[in-house]
Amino acid sequence: MMAKKDIENGSINFIGDADNRLKEDYLRILRYLRFFLNYSKLPHNLNVIKTLKMNIGGISKLSRDRLLDELKKIVKPDILEKLSKDKLCLELILIIFPELKYINIFSKLNLNNKHLLIEKDFIFLLSLLIVDETDNVDYFLYKFNISKKDQKRIKIIDNFYKEKITKKSFTEKKINKVFYYYGKQAVDDILIFGIFKYQKYSKNLIELNQIFKTKTLQTMPIGADLLMNKYQIPEGKQLGFKLKMIEEEWIENNFKISDQQVENILKN
Predict the structure, then answer these.
(1) Is-contact 172 211, C-beta < 8 A?
(2) Which ranges in 56-201 belong to alpha helices (H)?
(3) Count of CB atoms situated within 10 Å of the CB of 43
(4) What DSSP string describes 177-212?
């Protein structure tokens, strides 16, 4: 698509007629943007930009999988930072991927926290771009073929931040619940996400992240055998129901529960 010599010189242009090259494969629109953000040392050629805009409708003819594969090559911290400051690239990307509403977050990265993004993967960076208080995440996941595991990971972040966010959203007790239900990956995702989306809480979030890096998962101290042997609860639906109530009380009480609390639940 582009001559190696041009790339080395920082000049991003198509080999031959740009319009013909794009009509051969409309994915070259995204490839141009990626090459430009990675290698350009010169301003955009406005004739090329005009040709890209004239052909942008051809993107609809491409498979969602090809678009997603190319997006994965663009969603890198350094490229996103350049993209957020390049008006022409940004305009084109948002026509192709309108769900990437928050690219501007990369235009104002806190230098002290920037290192936290270096090892972050595509799914986390994508969540920074699409998670909001609307159905934006659901729409993106409907359009593109993301694995069930990765969908769940994004939805955990999305659901957490759909609640009204205050300082109380980031207590150790609340994050403990996330840890218990969803594990260490979810805690890390939620806290690092918050550092970049809610900078006024970043100091607290960085401290919490350090705490949970070495934290081990709590184990429920009350099991079915104990209820059957000590409290004579027969095996069946009632046993499962009581165990669930005890677990909820234990979690709500910051992973502590007394014999008296257990007995009160069993009496009701």
Answers:
(1) yes
(2) 64-74, 77-84, 87-96, 122-130, 136-143, 148-162, 172-182, 184-197
(3) 9
(4) HHHHHH-HHHHHHHHHHHHHH-GGGHHHHHHHHHHH
Predicted pLDDT at 148:
97
Of 77, 78, 82, 96, give the one whose Cα is nearest residue 44: 82
Tokens 């104990």 correspond to what residue? Answer: 226
Band (112; pLDDT cuts 50, 70, 90) = confident
pLDDT tens string 211-236: 999 998 888 888 899 888 888 888 88
What are the tens digits of pLDDT across the range 40-97?
888 888 999 999 999 999 999 999 999 999 999 999 999 999 999 999 999 999 999 9
**Residue burial 69-106, b: 16+ Cβ < 10 Å; e: rest:** ebbeebbbbebbbbbbebebbbebbeebbebbebbebb
Judge whether 114 and 74 are in contact, CB under 8 Å: no
Identify whether the C-beta of residue 249 lies closer than 8 Å to the C-beta of residue 265: yes
**Which residues, in sequence order, are CB contacts of 237 under 8 Å at separation 6+?**
none
